[in-house]
Amino acid sequence: MLDKVITSLTPNYNKLKGTAVFLLLFALALFIRLPFFFRDYVDRDESTFILIGQSWVDGFLPYTQLWDVKPPITFLFFAGIIYFFGKSFIAIRFMGTVLVAITAFYTYKSGALISTKKNGFVAAYICVMLLSMFGSIQGVMSEHICMAFFMPAFYLLIKHKNPVAILNAGLLMGMCLMSKLNLAYAILFIGLFVFYDFTKSKAYWKSLRNTGLFGIGILLIVFLTLLPYYLQNNLELWWESVFIAPLDYAAARRYSPMRLAPICLLIIIFFLWSWKKKYLDIRKRGMLLIIAATAGVLLSFIKGGRINSHYLIQLFPIFIIPVVIVFSKISFSGKFNYRTYIFFLLLALPAESYLEYFNIARNKLERGTFYNGEGFAVPEYINHYDLDTENILFLGYHIGYWVLGVNPPTKAATHPSNLCKDEMFSAYKNPRKTSMEELRYIMEELSPKTIVTRKGRRIFDQDEVEENAYMVQYLNAHYSVLATVDNAEIHQRLE
User: Fold this and answer.
1) How far is the C-alpha of 104 from the C-alpha of 125, rounded, in Å?
2) What is the distance between the alpha carbons of residues 274 and 281, in angstroms, rounded to a whole number?
3) Which one, of 306, 274, 304, 308, lies nearest residue 291 by Cα?
4) DSSP state, 422?
5) How far is residue 376 from each of residues 35, 86, 122, 373, 402, measured CA to CA in Å?
6) Closest Cα partner for 315 from 429, 431, 151?
7) Could you tell me which residues come within 8 angstroms of residue 476 by beta carbon, excluding any fewer than 6 positions away?
8) Whole-angstrom Cα distance, residue 91 to residue 411?
């Protein structure tokens, strides 16, 4: 009986039209991500992007009023949504869902070219899951934005070898790079592949021409992002913020590359084993492109020295294609009905979404609103009791700045963790040179009347010993906890 149900739900992959595939992937992404449309924040980076996007809408280019270490197109994405839809969490999360659907759709298209439509569809289905669940990826991350450019470019390079397609791929890769600089290595390796692809057949002129067009497309986008800063005579700020600050950050955060050895080794073993078993033909253009892109992403992980859950968004859409191809070629015992197990696994995977649907329903019943989280509750409390918001400092739940319509007290406070990243202060000419100077300036000179922290949590990462000790001592001496709102503490200055 169950087999008949599974068979009836299985589409005829060869008859699926592109529009139908996109709509199916979008519907899946929307179902998984919808309950998170009403949460204040999922990852603190998303809150920071929203703040800088709002600042851009207010007339301030990124890095001029508020600052974070991301390229401009990430902030442009949020600024565009805010400009057209206003302060709408639903609009931001909905557009994030569109990004996931686009990425998964071009995973499907790429997989269908390299293998079959069925394998492409399965890869795309898994891609939606991996880009929407686990960790802090239900919000809109810079990785979601960059991969929505990367995968269409990737598909163009697999399908076409003509100059127009390669130029368009370069433009898309430029958009990707100016959304997430980490993918520079993957883009570089893909550029080398474009050069090799024509050189191997001794088409040297075509090799130079097409590699040049690919590079021109990338550089044109880079140039367009610097143009507004050139017109404001502020090129140095753009250069320091987009390129120098990430390098300084990577150099200062000394994580051991050996921490990433297991995942790199596993991926290498996977490709070697699959090649030896003849599950993958690594001589095909599409598979060579996958290997080049995967190697580039892994190199960026190694250079960074760590992998957060949202970093893997850069790897999943590419690497899932060969994984599905290999799985489709493995022979299973006729008695082992793996389809039943996969069916129940797919039903169980969105467990986080099921729980969040329950949470928003409960929140609606208890508080009369679907919106939930301290990012809403704390500003509501502050407005209700008319607390002073001049120089207010959110050391947690900093999306509260946006809800209240105020700015962080300094550029460094745009993202709370940036207060301790003094290696990047020089990028935006911060008058204070160290994190302790910045904290003392905020606490002792700006003297915010209201400060918000996370209840029962360290203010900064555990490695920031001096900064944590200073903040605890200063809060205890000069502030009292006025209220606890869910998991947030609101501190009021004593004098």
Assistant:
1) 7
2) 8
3) 274
4) G
5) 16, 16, 38, 6, 10
6) 151
7) none
8) 26
pLDDT per residue as tens digits for the range 341-389 = 677 777 777 888 888 999 999 989 988 899 999 999 999 999 999 999 9
Separation between Cα atoms, residue 421 and residue 412, nearest integer Å: 8
Contact 58, 69 (CB under 8 A): no
Tokens of 114: 């390299």
CA 167 to each of CA 148, 164, 226: distance values in angstroms, whole numbers, following the listed order:
17, 5, 20
Whole-angstrom Cα Rg for the chain: 24
Q: One-letter amino acid identity for 323?
A: V
Q: Which of 219, 234, 209, 325 is nearest to 274 (CA)?
A: 325
DSSP-derived letter for residue 221 is H
Q: What is the DSSP string of 33-98?
A: HGGGGGBS-SSHHHHHHHHHHHHHHTT--TTTSS--SS-HHHHHHHHHHHHHH-S-HHHHHHHHHH
**488-493: strand order across its sheet:** 393-394, 450-454, 488-493, 479-485
Instruction: Give CA separation, 295 vs 6, 183, 200, 308, in Å.
Output: 37, 11, 21, 18
Q: How far apart are CA 104 and CA 147, in angstroms?
A: 9
Contact between residue 360 and residue 372 where contact means Cβ atoms under 8 Å apart: yes
Determine how β-strand 450-454 pairs with β-strand 488-493: antiparallel
Burial of 14 (0-12, 13-18, 19+ CB in 10 A): exposed
- Integer angstrom CA distances of residue 302 from 30, 255, 261, 317, 436: 33, 9, 8, 19, 30
Tokens of 466: 């001096």
The tokens describing 471, both together, are 């903040």
Retrieve residue 158's tokens: 């697999």
Cα separation, 439 vs 460, whole angstroms: 12
Q: What is the pLDDT of residues 162-216, one digit of tens each?
A: 999 999 999 999 999 999 999 999 999 999 999 988 787 777 888 899 999 999 9
Amino acid at 408: P
Using DSSP's 3-state secondary structure scheme, residue 39 falls into strand
Query: Across the strands, what pairs with 371?
Result: none
